[in-house]
Fold each of these.
Amino acid sequence: MSNPQVVVHRDGDLLAAAAAARLVTRIVDAQAARGSASVVLTGGRTGTAVLEHLNRNAARDAVDWSRVDLFWGDERFLPSGHAERNETQARAALLDHVSVDPSRVHVMEPSDGKFGDDPEAAAAEYASLLASLARPEDHGDVPSFDVCMLGVGEEGHVASVFPDSPAVHEKERSVVAVRNCPKPPPTRVSLTLASVRSAQEVWLMTTGEAKAAAVAMALDGAGEVQLPAAGARGRRRTLWLLDSAAASAVPALFKPPLA
Ligand SMILES: O=C1O[C@H](COP(=O)(O)O)[C@@H](O)[C@H](O)[C@H]1O
């Protein structure tokens, strides 16, 4: 597992633009090396802003979108097309505007989908999907995603893994249903931290003063049960992409030396 690196941008808009550019490069490189790329999308304001920037960036068309597998780190368990679903927001921000292969857009089932109001069944199906796509070299039942993007909550949640919740204690399943979530909506489906750690690169992206304490604690050695973001690490790279407000309490160790 990799140690965290921190990149600070002046403000949230610049962070989103820079992360979008970084994502294009990562996907293009993976496609050049292997023919395809796999990306885990995140919900939330920063994750959606990254996709909006990507959609406006001319470099968007350097990607062959038909050869990208898209997954979600978590989903709000709501009816299909609901404005608060992470899928709905990602489609509006980017996916409706590029030539994705629908069979490679791996959504988590909605609450009016084939399992009805059964988030446990939706989670189990997503776990089976991940297992079916994992290759022997992934050494487990989850693919080694090229990039897993995550937002970070004020209390340190990532995906829908909240502090001291059943999801953060989960040791067997790769995808879980989340009930009684402290942030609305209360029912969700989420990758576990172990699944996040299957990714080659994990990018934790967040902005604003309200996130500064959680960011600082995660980087300063907090445990993942109290602060799930601390347990989100990539196999090869863990990047914290922050604006200056979210980075305001980052320990000095992570600040680049002055030139
Ligand atoms: O509810 C969620 O929130 C987090 C963080 O969102 P933000 O708006 O504070 O950036 C997000 O990462 C997660 O995917 C989403 O379901």
Amino acid sequence: MPTPPKTPNLIPARPRIAVLLGDPGGIGPEMAVKLLARQRNLDAARVLLIADPVVLAAGERVAGVKLDPLRIDGLDDLRFEHGRPTLLQRDWMQGREPVLGESNEASGRASFEALELATAAVRRGQAEGIVFAPLNKHSLRLGGLVHEDELRYMQERFAVTGFVCEFNLTGSLWTSRVTSHIPLKDVASHITVEGVGDAVKIIASALRRAGVAQPRIAVTGLNPHAGDGGSIGMEEIEIIAPAIERLRAEGYDARGPFSPDTVFIGARRGDVDAVVSMYHDQGQIAMKLMGFEQGVTLHGGLPVPVATSASGSAFDIAGKGVAQIEGLQQAFDLCVRMASGGPVRTLSSAETAA
Ligand SMILES: NC(=O)C1=CN([C@@H]2O[C@H](COP(=O)(O)OP(=O)(O)OC[C@H]3O[C@@H](n4cnc5c(N)ncnc54)[C@H](O)[C@@H]3O)[C@@H](O)[C@H]2O)C=CC1
Ligand SMILES: NCC(=O)COP(=O)(O)O
């Protein structure tokens, strides 16, 4: 009879994480290769790298590192060896080198197909999480994405009928948003009592899972100065304040509506655990200024953690070898912790370095 391990609690769960290179024309391949060149990441998880070989080779050249993957032919053949990523490669680019610094159909298709394969691995019960290096939404569209964004695409692939929402994390502060990747001119018509309620509830639930028993959630207004008593717009009075009242009656510690331009002053000093904004830039400009390098995006509402860096495809520095990977590292760490049932917060730089 085999001897049971003496210290089972110290054995890492090593969840299976699908890792994607992101947009071939950007810094994603370089970032993903740098991430997987860190031995501690291969010790923490069983990595399934899904990649086009030409894009991977380009990423290796820019990063100045060569990975030593275990190659498999398909998901039916999935296996892992400790300390090496498993590589499932597909010739999406048909042998063509990625064109750095631009969006095009080939890049979009390669990114999109890799995402499709990663969701297939999850659906087949062969991966407990997904981490992708930065995608580019314009390329994705050229490559066939018809959804609002990759989150809504994954929602459909995972047959999630409930509300999904992007979370952006920097340190211990979280944000969610009522609208996400839609034109600014359409935002006001998408702000509803139900939408505000959904965005607060989903982040409250995520924070509770992260160990915050009664999350304090600040809700922004839509208009300058949260409407200034109705003199600069009525959405606060007619929609957002009633939504907050309803949430408070249901037991949520929702506060506001706060002026969108100043809400992060209190949030930064720890007055709240999360900020729910009405649209992308209300939250992301502040979050990126507070911690662009460490920022993480988590795709809330999906059956498994799907995480990426807050930073994007950075076409302006593609191929230069200067891409930082702290955000992607944080995304990977968070995904591994969530997939193995551990704490959900992001770590400080000192903790990450330890
Ligand atoms: N994780 C993801 O998949 C994300 C994807 N995006 C996508 O990226 C595309 C471009 O977005 P932008 O707004 O131009 O923002 P961006 O984050 O790609 O670039 C903004 C600025 O930050 C710099 N930068 C970005 N990442 C860096 C890194 N890792 N190391 C050093 N410098 C870095 C860039 O050089 C640029 O000056 C869009 O299509 C957007 O949808 C944006 C954010 C996250
Ligand atoms: N799905 C990742 C993503 O869209 C991140 O970009 P952002 O819109 O949160 O800036």
Amino acid sequence: MSASIRTRVRPPAPADDWALFLDVDGCLLDLAAAPDAVTVPAALPATLAALARRLQGALALVSGRSIAGIDALFAPLRLPAAGLHGLELRSGERLRPAPVAPAALAGIREEAALLALRYPGVVVEDKGAALGLHWRAAPPARIALHAFAEAALPRLPGYRLQHGDHVVELRPADGDKGAAIRTLLQQPPFRDRLPVFAGDDLTDESGFAVVNACGGLSVLVGARERSAAHYALRNPAAVRGWLGAAGPGPVHAGDAP
Ligand SMILES: O=P(O)(O)OC[C@H]1O[C@H](O[C@H]2O[C@H](CO)[C@@H](O)[C@H](O)[C@H]2O)[C@H](O)[C@@H](O)[C@@H]1O
């Protein structure tokens, strides 16, 4: 069921019995003009590391970026992670690698780069098995990028389009963030904990559905009207404040934020 932003309230402060899943762009990090223009606030890795210790390791980053990309952003911190919208998975020693990119994707990437030359500001993001076409810094390119992605899709059997915030991606159709969260919840250290997921974009809705079905907490970041999330935080700064608000001592479900 879709809850209105007007009815969503701030989530409670993080509690020690949570399994916490956090989206990256637009949730932990402020959005930037291009994927490589994001900045990680200096205090954030330490906040995440402290929270992960507090949760006995049950904190994972769940992103559309690759796991390598996530690790590069937060280095030297290396957390359990789901990358490429749930295609890749890492928890402890367990790793589900991303599929190998089909040969046709290289040609499509080159064609996209040529198209980008006509629209200054367009970014073609090579994510290995996935390809992101970004128009945040080039709004007039939106229609051309969608048309390009739709035309390219039939050349990539087993692929689908992933629509996101000022981006359309060509990605393998398998998996989503919800399935990745469900998989992590079946194994330690996530098992038998209250699942909590915060995210801002369309790709996060599958994660909200899974944590809702488990009786957990779904947290929408921003003011998108149509979402299954039950709680809301205004922006990434509010998310970082929420996570930092756990403080140094033990915390329990229901504590005031
Ligand atoms: O699931 P997420 O962690 O939210 O990742 C979703 C996509 O995030 C990145 O793109 C978005 O953030 C960029 C930097 O702020 C922004 O320029 C772009 O417009 C956004 O769509 C990332 O580049 C993608 O690979 C992720 O799929």
